[in-house]
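tool=predict chain=A
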Amino acid sequence: MPSRDVIWFRQPAADWLEALPIGNGRLGAMVYGAAPFERLQLNEDTLWSGYPQEAIRPQPEGLLEAIRERVQAGDHVGAGELSRQLQGPYNQSYMPLGNLYLALHHGPEISDYCRELDLATATVSVRYRSGGVGYTREAFCSTPDQVLVVRLTVDRPGFLNLDVSLDSLLQHSVEIYEGVAYVMTGRCPQHTDPVYHSGGPKALVYGHGPEDPAMRFAVVTRVALEGGALQADDAGLHIRNADALTLTLTAATSFRGFDQMPGRRTEPLVRRCRETLGLNRPHPRAAIRPAHPFDELVDRHRQDHAALYDRFSLRLGPELDDPRSTAERLQAVIEGGVDPGLEALYAQFGRYLLISSSRPGTQPANLQGIWSQDLLPAWSANWTLNINAEMNYWLAETTNLSELHTQLFRLIKELSVAGARTAKALYGCDGWVAHHNTGIWRTAIPVGDGEGNPQYATWPMAAGWLCQHLWEHYRFTGNEGFLWKQAYPLMRSAAQFYVDILVEDGNGYLTTCPSTSPENCFLDTGGNRCHVTRGCAMDLAIVRELFQNCAEAVKVLGIKDDTLWADQLLAKAARLAPLKIGSDGRLLEWDREVVEAEPGHRHISHLYACHPGWQITPEGTPELAAAVEASLDERLANGGGHTGWSCAWIINQWARLHRPERAHQQLLTLLRRSTYPNLFDVHPPFQIDGNFGGAAAIAEMLLQSHDGILHLLPALPKAWSDGEVKGLRARGGFTVDMHWDEGKLVEAMIRSDGHSYKGECRVRLGNEEISFAMGEPAEAICGNAGVSFIPGRRRPSTR
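tool=predict ok
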């Protein structure tokens, strides 16, 4: 019987959306598990089309003022049309690396088949019998050794016969290295249009010759045999009569940095791969012997993975041995069942995906993590900054994967470089700005080539939202060195842009203009769809939050030179137009009551202040919280939450509102309507943000700390009547373990890293609150539950 943290099936994957993902942050593979012909679809996180280019286009003088004048006059359609002139080219696309094929020589009859992904060991295994022989293969991506490893064994010596080959959808060629390794090299297109804008002559453009500026790549694979013989030719590697083999594969690209032209030669890439695989030896035939024995490879891989994965454990409901496969369990939920164990597995799968797609030194997880099979992937598999990239990292801090957050911080720093140029060229402002998406070349412009829809393009708020992640990392870790050196400079510069762009609204308030509410629109009196206005609720919430966070950072860091500036930020925050409640009790999305074009729109941007922000809470702002709830009800009544990520965001909202049954019902909706058999999230097609957002929502239902208080089990549904969690993280440097039974907390253990800058730990359970001083260990009773507090020793500042 598979363990609790295993996703398993009784049959191979029928297509990509049933394959199982493995990855080490840089290399990724989707394992189909077919017999006898296996396919592993490959990715490398820096393999993109295009190259660095200046994307900012000259603007007509007075364009920004002209847009504002149209808004002031009520000509929102005209404002939207003018805003298209701000647009530059679309971003480039994330490319698929290729495919590794294993063609086993045995009959078609298959029995005793099992395919599984063990989340705790980050290994995909396939087992079956054919012709009286038992076949087993294991696959994983190792971070310590930077290789994809596939191990094949048989239970009858000498019965392992197979062919190994590579191919790619990209332009490529293959060759054999010294008769022992299979080498594939190639190049990316120098330009792609996004799939929703493709079909013309620029959909997929390859360059030619050695001066082509597009990215190159190399893939090298080798096998280490136990028994048998190896032959190699242009068709691949041919293994005959072996007892077992270990295959290792690695890849390299000519990416040199977001602002550097890619290298134009593949030879250095092949050399780098050979070094990784231990092939650069005086006698290459010795490479038939492994550079590292399989046992060493697997031990290093599992220790590295466990150091992250084992920090957190979760049980929802009783511990049961369930004989059903994951697909069978999911189908039972789709048909109306409830399976708390599957929900806990879904949460751990989200953590597994982040560990596998976001490691220190790699690119951050994109719209598909690192797993993509298409030359023109959906939405370019880029980083969409008006919800999706941020949602990818909501679980990083709360589920004890804080260091995996740092890849997003590097993107923010790199994006701010182009963002500063964009702020000055398009808006005449200091600081930095970013819009609704970016790619590996870190462009910060509104995209669309002058034809993009303003409902997504005219949104200069990404910098503010991204800065929330910088501040949240500080709140969870207390790392003043990070705040001083990395976070605050980026936050300050982003805040400066918003200081410069704010305008008076005519009623004594400050507001934003132009403004859109991603990616929604309203109707004017003529029934026209309108996008560009002023003072949308999301804008105001992001700017207010950023100003307040910057002021708090100045206080924490004791930056005397910025004290006056911080006071000015707080004064401007107080002058921002307030969030408003409409006549029907809903939170207004735009600056006034309008007719919504899509009442069930997938985005709930106007609810940012409730989640992921913290300006709206049931305890602190009950009227606004009720308006958020009314807004959610209206969205859902009109079909909202129909994409996986949207559904996940709504779960988080219900959790923040302390509505456990609503949150759980939405979680069931996520599983029933927006989850593929391999537990990937449905957009459609696939987007990984729903997986990350759903996992974060489960954590949010169990523990919240956004308002400085540790809320224990704030949204525990009846379906999770008993359970336990270990390793949840809270702001202030706290780690929380909890056990509950019959819906009541039995015991909680709170450990402190000593980072609470308020010098205490405040805990709330239901309506009861207790506090612990940051001194000696202490115990108390809260809601008839035992709560133990273990203080940590404050580490010295790393400033």
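The two ends are 50 Å apart (CA to CA). The first helix runs from residue 63 to 72.
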